[in-house]
Every structure is written in C-alpha cells, then in structure tokens.
Design a protein that fits this description.
Distance between the termini: 32 Å
Strand content: 15-25%
Oligomer: single chain
Structural class: alpha/beta
CATH class of the largest domain: Alpha Beta
C-alpha cells in the first residue's frame, strides 16, 4: 500500500515508519518549519505544508487536503502528530485505511498533552494507542494498545519519551497488519486475524520497560 503521513511535529513516528520500510508517498504538515519536514526531505519523500490560516473554514481546508491526497494516489493515511480533527471529506475517503497514533490508553486522556494529563491524574499506567479515525476526536475503534508505566519521578518529557519509544514500534506493526488485510474495520468493529490478535495481545502484555 501507498501511504500519506500527516504530521505537525518533529517527525519521530514518520521516521519510524520509513525505517520500517513503509511505502510513504507523501507527507503533509499543518505547520511550517517542523522537524517532520526535514525527515521527509532526508528520505526524498514529497512534502507539503498546509496551514489552516490560508483557508476560509475547516471544510475548505479538508477539501484541499483531500485533493492533495487523491492526487498523490495514496491508499491509506496515517496521522502522526497532526493536530487537526479531519472532516468527512477526508475521513470518508479512506474507510479502514485512516490511522492515528495517540500517547495514552484511549479513551483516557484524549486530545492535546496526553502525558501531561496522565501525570496530573496520578495514574500509574498510561501508554500508546493506534486506532482507526472516525469523525470524533480520538474516538475511533481501537486497533492496538501498549502500556507504559508512570514512575514517581517522571516528568512530562521523560514520560513522553518512553511512550514514543513504544509508538515507534507499535505504529509500523499495525500499518503492516492493515496492509496484509489482517486488521479491518467492518460494520463499526475492528476485526483481527488470529495471528494479528496474538501479536497485539503480546504487545498489551509487555510493558516498555520489560
């Protein structure tokens, strides 16, 4: 499958996808000057900056994004640090082929600054989630999760780094499973092949610190 990756930060998950050999054909950032654009440039992957300020409203932004994705001929889309809620113009164009990675065990701590939310809540375990994207904010069907312990001396930076270490391994794995048809979104539910279920269950049983 050919993928687009939507970004907005330093691009560590993009780098992980590229290192895993995922066929990334396009990178789109909602912000200029971010590290993810340098990652794309270093890998010779075409990249576009699509800043919201240049559009009259969210619908106009989404229409342009959908046109860019269609013109690139991608089969699926991964959100990796893209801090915008996508509308139906984009979401409905990639059913079961639009993924997001989020730094918490959803549905806990959706939205921005999830590690900060986890620390403020005093939880002892948080983690990473890869899910299909629907029309809500971090509400799509969950494909895979992996736990990350929260240590007493954690800061937002240290906890974020450990969660990202898990994301960098879990996200490419899920993308490969989707490519092979071992993960699908059918009738509102996630369906896993037996092999995919076993692999993802192992991830749940293994903390990043093991």
């Amino acid at each position: 499958m050919r993928w687009a990756v939507l970004v907005g930060g330093r691009g560590s998950n993009l780098a992980a996808l590229l290192a895993a050999g995922i066929d990334v054909r396009l990178v789109v950032s909602h912000r200029a000057g971010v590290g993810a654009l340098d990652v794309a440039r270093s890998a010779a992957v075409p990249a576009r900056v699509l800043e919201p300020a240049g559009f009259a409203d969210r619908a106009a932004y989404d229409r342009t994004l959908a046109e860019i994705l269609a013109s690139a001929g991608v089969d699926g889309v991964v959100l990796a640090g893209f801090l915008r809620i996508l509308g139906p113009t984009v979401v409905d164009a990639y059913p079961g082929r639009l993924l997001n990675v989020h730094p918490s065990l959803l549905p806990a701590f959706p939205g921005l600054h999830a590690p900060r939310q986890a620390l403020a809540a005093g939880v002892r375990v948080t983690g990473a989630t890869v899910h299909f994207v629907d029309h809500g904010m971090d509400t799509g069907p969950i494909i895979a999760q992996a736990p990350v312990p929260v240590w007493p001396d954690d800061t937002e930076a240290t906890l974020t780094a450990r969660i990202q270490s898990v994301e960098h391994r879990l996200l490419p794995l899920v993308v490969r499973l989707v490519e092979r048809g071992e993960v699908a979104w059918v009738d509102g539910r996630v369906h896993l092949s037996p092999a995919a279920a076993a692999t993802l269950s192992w991830w749940w049983s293994k903390s990043e610190e093991d």
